[in-house]
Amino acid sequence: MSETKCCVVSCEKPLDAAYWEAQYKAKATGWDLGKVSPPLQTYVDTLENKNIRVLIPGCGNSYEAEYFLDQGFTNITVIDIAPTPVADLKEKFKNNPNIKIILGDFFEHQGEYDLIIEQTFFCALPPAMRQKYVWKMHQLLDNEGKLVGLLFNRTFEVNPPFGGSKEEYEALFKVAFGFLKMDACLNSIAPRANSELFIEFKKNNIVTVNLYEFNGITCSGCMETVTKKFAVIDGVLNVSMSSDYMEVLLVSKNEIAVATLQNAISYDEKYQIKKISY
Asked: Alpha carbon 50 to chain centroid distance?
């Protein structure tokens, strides 16, 4: 299965649990390498503390988790929304107390981790969810925690996967995370050569990162106006709005009152903003 054509269910359907379960049932898992990704294997080999709390979201068959366990790591959590890979992993690791396997929605997950591994999870999400991804990653990481893994540095004609660029990622993650590394990956598998970035982001624990539901915007011009209004509020460090105009990621020096945000957009009565708290 070509990596650029792994979608066998209409991509107009929601990319929900039913969609991903259908991919596994149809064995249309073109993203599955059948082994741990070489760049991630190299990274894991540099880690000395075997007791760090590791989370792997959208884990699928999770060869990365298996590699962590083989190297003696003792606190691995994996989560996926599709029942089939979760059931397979529970059977595979049923006698291993060092791994926790969860069937569920990553965005509803609660916990605290030292390291979160990104491997074909970000690219599987609709682009409109990218602000939510940054917010949730920041929420789940310990104060010194890191987000480490691979992001595509290219676009795709068939989705998913959804690609992107280094410039886009810099704008999306800036201030919420410190960029320890975001470089072209030199040891990708052959089909992904020259199309991956290896990232190592450290949580910025002295800023506040919030996500808001936004109603009323219908065009990119209005989006630009609204984000500029938010950007000039005292204490705001970065503003990013989702591609469907329905969510706003706001990074600030401290908590910004919702009333302050609402006042900034009061010039248009149809604009409404509400903090997301789950």
From this structure: 24
Q: Sign of the C-alpha dihedral, residues 228, 230, 231, 232? A: positive
Q: How far is the first Cα of the chain from the last one, in angstroms, to the nearest whole number?
A: 37
Q: What are phi and psi of 126, to 5 degrees?
A: -55, 140
Strand 141-152 to strand 113-118: parallel, antiparallel, or no bridges (unpaired)? Answer: parallel
| CA separation for the pair 185, 229 (Å, rounded) | 37
Those residues with Cβ within 8 angstroms of residue 204's Cβ, 6 or more apart along the chain or in another chain: 138, 175, 176, 177, 178
Instruction: Please give the distance of CA 206 from its chain centroid, rounded to a whole number.
Output: 21
Over the stretch 85-132, which tens digit does the pLDDT of each residue have?
A: 999 999 999 999 999 999 999 999 999 999 999 999 999 999 999 999
pLDDT tens, position by position, 223-266: 999 999 999 999 999 999 999 999 999 999 999 999 999 999 99
Amino acid letter, residue 202: K
